[in-house]
Design brief:
By secondary structure, the protein is an alpha/beta fold. It has helices spanning 41-51, 64-75, 115-129, 149-159, 170-178, 188-195, 202-214, 253-266, 271-286, 296-303, and strands at residues 5-9, 13-20, 31-39, 56-62, 81-85, 91-98, 103-106, 134-138, 163-167, 183-184, 219-223, 229-233, 236-241, 307-312. A hairpin with a 5-residue loop joins strand 11 (219-223) and strand 12. It is globular.
Amino acid sequence: MIVLIVTLTINPAIDRTITTDRLVFEDRTYILENTESAGGRGINASRVLHSFGAATFALATAGGDAGRRFERYLQKCGFPFELVPIASEIRTNLAISDRQGLTIKLNELGPELRPEEVARIEAAVLRRLDSAEWLMLCGSLPPGVPDSFYASLIRMAHERGVKTLLDTDGPPLRAGIAAGPTVVTPNQQEAERLLETALVTRTHALRAAERIRRMGAVSVVLSLGSQGAVGAFPDGVFEAVPPPVQAVCPIGAGDALAAAFVWACRQGSDSVDALRWAVAAGTASATLPGVRFASLAETRAIYKGVETRRIWEPSASGQNDR
C-alpha cells in the first residue's frame, strides 16, 4: 500500500485535558470533564488526515508506562503507526480550558534520548520515505536530539522527491527552514521568537511571513489564531480570514491547520485554496470542546465563509520551488 502522508512525532505525550466551568484566580473552579489521549502535533495531524479520508502513517516514540498507555490510545485512532521504543518515560502534558475558551497549557520537556535512539528514529523515517509523498515533521525535539535533526530529514526527503511540512519552534525551526522545507507553519508566537520581533499589526504578520520564506522555506503559512492566517508563496503573499465563530478550545487548532493544508494540496488545490482549507480546519476545530478536531463536513461549512485575498506580488527572493 502506498502511504501518501507520513507524520513524525519524536516528542509525543499523553495529553490530559481538563475542562472547567471557568478559570479564575484565587477562587474555586469545578471540573466538568477530564480526558486522556495520545498526543503530539504529528499524532493530531494524522487524526485529522485520517478523518478527512487521506492515507496517513504516524511515526512516534514510546517508552515507560506512559508509552504503553500511549500505544493503547493510538490503537483506537484507526490509522497505521509505528512506535520506536526508547528507554525513558514519554511525557505527560496538561491542558486546562474553560467554557469561555480560556486555556492554560503545561508541557513537559520530554525524556532525554540517547544517540542510538535518535539513529533508530531516523532509520524508521527513511524506511517510510519510499512510500511517501509528504513528510510532516511536527512538534518539539526532546533533550538529546540535535537542533539539526529536522533539517537533516528535510534534505533526505528532498533527495527522494518527498515534500515536507515543518511545524516546530525555536532553534530546530530556524535550522529546518534553512534546509528548504516545502512549507513551514509557525504560529504567531513561534514566528516572533524566530524573527525576534513582535507582530503587532496585520502588516507585521504579512511581512514576517515573507521574511521567513526568504530564510529558505518554499512556502510559509503563518497562523494568527482567530484572525486566520497569512500565506507567503512563490506567487505572492495572501491572507485568509475566517468568519466570526465562538472559540471553545484552541488547543490543536494549529495541528488541524497544518494537516488540512497538506490534505488540500493532495486533493489538487493550489496554495491559496489550501490556505483557505487550513484556516477552515483550524477555526472549526477551535469551536469544539476539549482536544477535538473538526470533521471534513464541519470544516467545509467554515471553508465557505473563509475569505482570501492577495496582498502583494512575489518579490525577487532567488528561491527555487521544491
